[in-house]
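Handout, section 4.2: multi-component inputs.
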Amino acid sequence: MTQQWLPAFAYLAIAASASAIMIIAGLILRVKAKVDEPSKYDTYECGEEPDGNTWIRFHPRYYVVALVFVLFDAEAAFVLPWALNLRELGQFAILEMFLFLAVLMVGWLYAVRKGAIQWQ
Amino acid sequence: MTVASNASNSFIMSLPSPVPEILTHPVGHGLVMGTIILTFFMLISAWSIWFERRFAGRMQSRVGPNVVGPAGLLQPIADAIKLLRKENLVPSGADKVLFWLSPPMTLFFTLATLAVIPLSEDLLVAELDIGLLWVLAFSGLLLFPTWIAGWASNNKYTLFASMRAVAQGISYEIPLLFSAIVPVVVVGSLSISDIVRYQGEHGWLLFWPLGPGALGFLIFFVASLAEANRIPFDVPEAESELVAGVTVEYSGMMYGLFPMTEYVHTLITSALASALFLGGWYGPFGWAPGVHWMVGKTLFLFFVIFWARWSLVRFRSDQLMRLCWVWLVPLSLLCVCGAALWVVYVGGVA
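Output:
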């Protein structure tokens, strides 16, 4: 068990240090501007002065998409163990999963008909 | 005892006889093999930027970068030096900690998926029995740094871009997941190496089972294009609407990590697609298996992605969502069902 996981975790250390090295190298090698012009810290808004608060209100469709996503993602968690044990369970598993997916697709149809995914 | 130690042993066998002791230890194997594979993927991604620019130049009847070095071959190095030397600006009003955290996080999550991608029978970091879940989990985490970058920049364009990126990312994760389940259903294992070995015995999953295999590959490829935010799915960084997506306020190496990550992610995605559906390190007609097949298929898919980039136009945001939820999600579920039916009734398991 550990034999299997140790290389993967050792590799994570390599990946983390590779990302850190990039940033640190940038910090060491970068050139500092001699004159500190305050306007260069302004956020970019097509050359205009930034107007109002950045954290503004959003269309609720993003929220609806996130809800539908959670539904399907949780379902994938059920499909994975089913996929692994399909060979042993045979016909029974097929019947069970098709019923489950049918119920889910009714929900999908409802979401599509209600325009939950219609971005206009 | 375990597959990983087998893999490390066969790698050790290929080395000259006095083997350093550290290489026989799992951690040593992970460190050494990890460094090799990581460097390999980073170098290919760096020079693929040069290749893409040359290729785009040819497609548009111009030359492309040709000044730095022979045929412009040193262009990636020049770009890297330029980015390293630039000042890192943090815009006023930005969340400093999150702003700094986001670029290394993007690169880390992308590189982490490499751990379980097998280049050949023994050229891999770790053979986990949940390898596919490892990849999907880390590529799912990739949405967080993207969103953090957009939120922390204190800029309206980046906020819009990150909202779009998250909406697109979570939507396309569903067909990606289900089309990746097709090989799991057929093979009965989550280990990517097991999936490749099965294809060595029974033929590529792209061809057999006929329907679910080919359609599953197509959906997987399209969904992973969308996950990597490549054209025609690069709505989150649509230049004409959002300036440069979540990277508007970034400069220097902090900026450089984003496009680099995008290329590494695209390359890893192509590698994953060729391992899952195109037989990994096995050639067609049972020709001698080897690392060259895996690298060749990966680079071919990578090239197809470039090709698509310079041939197709960007989708509109609502078309993108419609394509995903109305077409790809039910089709990928159909693929899973078809594969299951094939396993139980045609594969003769029941």
